Amino acid sequence: MFKQLSQLSKNLTDELAKGLADELNEGQEQFDKNSDLPVDVQAKLRKFDKYEQKYPLLLNAYKAEKAKIEKLAALQKILCENTPISSLEDFDSLTSFFQNTNLKIDMLNDEVKRLTTEKNEQSVELEALRGQLNDKDNQSDVDVSVEDTHKERIELEDRLKTLHGETDQLRKEVETKNAELAKASAKTEALKKASEESATLRAELKDAKEKIGESKHALQEKEEAYRTATAEIKEINTLLDQKTAEYEKVRSEQKLKQNGDNCNAQGGQSANSKTKNRKRKGKNKNSLPVDVQQNATAISDVKPTGENDLSSEIEQLKEIQHKLNALQQDYDALLNRHQKSKEEIQVLKDAESELEKLRIEKEDTVRQLQEAKDELKFKSEELDSNKEILKSVGNELVTAKDQMKDLQSGDNAKVNELKSELESIRVRHSDSIKLYETRQNELKQKITTLETEKSKVAEEANKLKSALEKSSNEYQKLSSNLKKTEETIARLRKENGSITDELREMPALKKSENALKMSVTQKEKTIVYLEQQIKDYSAKEEQTNKLLRESTAESGRLSAKVDQLTRINEGMKNEVRKSEESMEKFIKNNGTLGEKLEVLNEKYATLKDLKSVSHEQVGTIGRQCDELNIKLKEANKRIGFLEDELNESALVVQEKTKELVGMRRTLAEGHSDVGARLQKVENILTSALDEKERLESEFALQATMFQRTIQDLKKSNENLTLQIQELRLKEKNYEYEVNQLKSSNAKVQKASNEDSGKTRELESALLEVRNSLSNSEKKLRSLEIANESFKELNGDLTRKLDRVSKNYKQMSSQLAAAKELKTSRPSSRSNSVFSISDQHSNGVSRRASYTEESGKETQADLNDKIAYIKNVLLGFLEHKEQREMLLPVVSTLLHLDSNDEKRLLISIR
């Protein structure tokens, strides 16, 4: 900087020397021209020369300032139209607006990723259902014709083609929506540029600090909500684990019983004991799957005690499964709502910064995908080998069944039984096809909802996740195949027991039985081995899912931090540029002042040499020189001040660069904490959903309460108006009676003047009239007091009505805003709250139908009121965030004053 300043000073001195020489020549010429004029006129002409030099500079400065003001006005207009800012001073609302939009964008990106993963899961389930259909076709090929199955497959393929066509249409619609979003994003980018020009760096730093505090507070709240949800899920998982453990215990006990019975059969027990034990074994085995249990009830009337326990446990498992399905439906509804809100928030994203980050992330994800694909190929090969083993097991079972059929071909009764079993298998096959069709229709609907929006990075990540989740689906497939093999084994054992009762003497049958038992034991060993492999695959799948979640969450956070750092860096660069420009301007002003000073000094020397200038001119020139010296000193001071500012700005820039380096280091270190951050984001989402549910339930409760109070107040107001009218009529009647009494009194007085004999009677009448007058006056006073009290009551009721109407308007506006942002999601707590609100609404409708004759409330209304007040008080005590909103509701219910409200708040805190 000092070298540049020295070079500038040298250049300025050279230019000043040239300018001085020219000005000296011009000054001499002007002096020669104006030498004929008087001294005063010459001084004024010199002043005008100065003004002529300054005028164009002032005019240019005025034009520049005017252009800036016009640009500022246009910018303010754009901001007022498109953002919540009403003036240039209101920057806090703009920053909070962008903060909220960024938070919504992050949350909705996570939801989109989850939706795409669910879509891939549904496609995997479709493939699993196809595999099950193929397995069922292979098992039921004994009596079902090949042509029927071929036709069914063709129909299913046609349906799948129609589904693919519908998905293509949906993709086209998604593309059109993306085009609209691109237009909206262009508008938002223009708005962002305008806001960046208007907002200063200090305001951004303050807003960033406030944002960090708010986000920490929100994260703490949402972590608590997520812990509650995870606790519920853990409870459900523990229940499932308990049921599976009980199921495995029963199965092991049955296996032990079976082995003991086989040993007794070989030891030479009687034929009757053999048949009984085998029948028991068949029943115990058939009690595990639901379909075989139904067939066993048709054959045998007697059931063991363990069968009832297992059926109850299976029913409990079904109930748990229904609960999980309900939770899944709620989750789907939430995802649909977040997709709708994403269309509003996606407008505010910076496309260029995202593309650069996505390229970096894409390279990482491609590497991970290649590794995952290699692992998946290896797993698919292992699964294919397992499938071949299972197919061989099924073929062996079919061959064993054929052998059994050949052995019992002589018996027509047994053939009929086998035919009935085959018919039942056909019925099951048709039922399974129907189930497949219904499941396929459900999958159609889910696919149409899920294939709305896809992004490049999300597709690649979800492909990896879906490929990893295939192992879990294969586990389900293998478990279903295991159940089928158990069913077939149980059926074969039943048939074996019935055959051995009648054909004891045939050694061939015994050999075949032993062979079948050996094959069954071998198959069971293979099934155990397959289950172990499936567990290993599920563990690997969980690891890959964790890696995927970490990568997605880290990418979003890094993008947000890099955006903030780039903005801060740009602001600092702009400040440095401004300071440098101001420094250059001051240097130029200093040079011009120095030139003017030298010119004046030279003119002063020339005037002394010429000796034609008077003492007055010398005094004026001396004053001008003093003024210029003062200006020079001020300019030097400004130069020093600007140099200090430049040094300070350079130090600030260095500090900011250090902070940027530190932020990058923290970003690099933050890769290890990605899992915890992902959980925080999930906590944010769950807590936001819970808050939304709470708000909706509380809004519904408050709305019903306000409607109810308004109706009650209207009724009481009508009753009061009727009473006031009745009192006014009574007052008029009393006034009329008083007037009549006064007139009668006047008549009596006249009669007393006319007839003195009747004075005593008139006096007694007067006393009676006076007594009646005093009574009537007392009644009038009491009526006036009652009228005033009724007026006061009416005024209080009107005030309460105004207050209730204001609160109702506020709550309705908040409800409308909440409904626009988030659609309603039913949950256990919200169902309970809405049921109470429905009871209140029913109570309100019942009250509206009541006539004025029913003065007292029924016991049901009192119970409704008590339940309502209890629910409001529990919500007030449980939720700290909603206390300010629920405080007016509690105060209206309990008739609390301001002092009572303060005492209540202090006692709670």
Automatic annotation (TrEMBL):
UniProt keyword Acyltransferase, yes or no: no
Q: Which UniProt keywords apply?
A: Coiled coil, Cytoplasm, Membrane
Using the record's annotation, list all stretches that form the GRIP domain: 859-907
The answer to whether keyword Coiled coil applies is yes
- Coiled coil region boundaries: 310-389, 433-502, 530-589, 625-652
* Ranges of Polar residues composition bias in the record: 259-271
Instruction: Tell me the Pfam families matching this sequence.
Output: GRIP
Q: Where in the cell is it found?
A: Cytoplasm; Endomembrane system
Give the principal location in a single coarse category: cytoplasm
**Low complexity bias: where?**
824-837
Biased composition of type Basic residues is found at 275-284
Residue span of region Disordered: 250-308, 815-857
Q: Which GO terms describe its cellular component?
A: Golgi apparatus
Q: How does it sit in the membrane?
A: Peripheral membrane protein
The name on file for this protein is: LAME_0H03444g1_1
Species annotation: Lachancea meyersii CBS 8951
